[in-house]
Amino acid sequence: MDDRKLQPLIREIRALHDQRYAEAAYLFVLEALDYTLFLHGKSQAGGEQRHVNGRELLEGIRRYAAEEFGPLAPFAFRSWGVHRTDDFGDIVFQMCEAGLLNASEDDRPEDFADAFDFEEAFALPGSVQGSS
Question: pTM to 2 decimals?
Answer without folding.
Answer: 0.87
